[in-house]
Amino acid sequence: MVKDRKIILRIIKNRLFEFIIFIFSVSLIVPLFLMIFMIVQKGISVINWDFLFMERRVMGSATGGILKDIIGTLILIGLTVSFSVPLGILSGIYLAENRKSKIAFVIQWAIDILQGVPSVVIGLIVSIWFVKSQILGPSALAGAIALSFMMLPVVIKSTEETIKLIPHIYKEASIALGVPYYKTILLVILPSSLSGIVTGVLLGVARIAGETAPLLFTAFGNNFMNTNIFKPMNSLPQLIYNYSMDASPKSHATAWGASFVLISIILILNLISKVVVKKWKIKF
Fold first, then answer.
1. What is the pLDDT of residues 24-51, one digit of tens each?
2. What's the pLDDT at 249?
């Protein structure tokens, strides 16, 4: 009887623990789904051809759309990725291959600090360095530099940790066959870690795609269509911020629609990355 009671008590404890885990998991998932549901509910009602492919030059206007903001967002993301990905991957390779060096320790320390710096502070610093000094002035390029500082730590960390997970035998076998070190990195290590690197890039894009504070100090925004990276450029996060602060219900509707478009862009990039990873992933 005593043993039966202990077994029953143990089963009850296990069930209770599983129930607590389930409750905490649901408590994290439910708010996310509620936010997505609200964005879809309020945003999809304003989505139409004119909203996506026309310009809206006056806040609160009932006509026009957010084409310039979509293009501006894509340009900013493209510039940021072109800056962050090469530098981030190279830095991640160095840190993974030289874990015990003093330079690697300093780089790790700098990355940890950079990862914790608030976005508004990064925007202010980049503004002082590149905008107020007139090296670049208010421009999309300055905005991309600010966003790159935010994306770099994510790419570096993901690259480093992914390369660390690759079995050493891959590298040793390649070098033993007489393959040069740089070719081993390019043709063996990087392809093997592609899925982790792509995931890190995606996480970085997801982080910077919705950032507003750095762009308020650097890209400044633009009421007209602009594809020149050396001039001010508008983006979806800036539009959402500006229109949500306006008292007009039409502006609020535009902000919800822009939020829906921004979430959709991130989702599309996510799906593309999964296709790429599935096609090129190497199984150990």
1. 888 888 888 888 899 999 989 888 888 8
2. 84
Which residue type sits at 198? V
- Global pTM reads 0.85
| Rounded alpha-carbon distances, angstroms, from residue 173 to 154, 195, 217 | 30, 22, 50
Q: State both tokens at 26.
A: 């649901």
Lookup: tokens for 165: 């997970």
Residue 172, both tokens: 């040793």
Is residue 139 within 8 Å of 230, Cβ to Cβ?
yes
